[in-house]
Structures are given as C-alpha cells and as structure tokens.
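tokens incoming
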C-alpha cells in the first residue's frame, strides 16, 4: 500500500517591521515571514514536525537579513495555526468516539 505522505511547509505569519534600518539601502521596512514544516498524509496536515523558520527581507532592496533576536522574537510570538493539527485531532476524535458513544448508552 502506497501512502502519500511527507513533509510540507506552511506560511503561517507575515509581518512588516519598521524598527530596524537596512544597512544596504538605509530604509526601515523589513518583511518578516514565518514558516512551519508539518507532516501530511494525503495532503491532510497531521502535526507540525519541526521548528519555525523566520525569513526576513528588506522590502526596498530585497536583501535577506539575519537578525537573530528579531527572528527569535517572531518565532516565539507566532502561534502555530490549529489546522496543522487536523490529522491528530481527527485521530483522537475517532479513537475516543466509541467510548463517548458507550457513555450515553
Ligand atoms: Zn534594504
């Protein structure tokens, strides 16, 4: 049996930061994108499988930035969306359903 499973990356947050000045162009307009990898089965998200990946880029000149404390800040403040746990929630629901039905009989 072939299971179509693997890992995909979800774009979970987008923000603009005006607190840091770009050394390349001098503009204070950074684009912050947060990604989260997840395991899927038939393209249904099962659960997030790794750390969050924060990518920062200057909106004016396009230069990629590596600002450690800013990346950590967005990593901590961005919540993983509930839909990335869909498979896990479905599995727990299906396992607990017979017990819930048995309680009400
Ligand atoms: Zn720039």
């Amino acid at each position: 049996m072939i299971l179509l499973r693997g890992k995909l990356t979800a774009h979970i947050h987008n923000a603009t930061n005006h607190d840091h000045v770009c050394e390349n162009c001098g503009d204070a307009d950074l684009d912050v994108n947060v990604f989260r990898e997840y395991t899927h089965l038939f393209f249904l998200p099962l659960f997030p499988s790794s750390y969050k990946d924060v990518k920062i880029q200057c909106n004016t000149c396009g230069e990629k930035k590596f600002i450690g404390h800013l990346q950590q800040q967005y990593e901590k403040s961005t919540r993983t969306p509930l839909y990335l746990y869909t498979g896990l929630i479905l599995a727990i629901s299906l396992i607990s359903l017979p017990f819930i039905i048995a309680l009400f009989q």
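note: The chain has one domain: 5-103.
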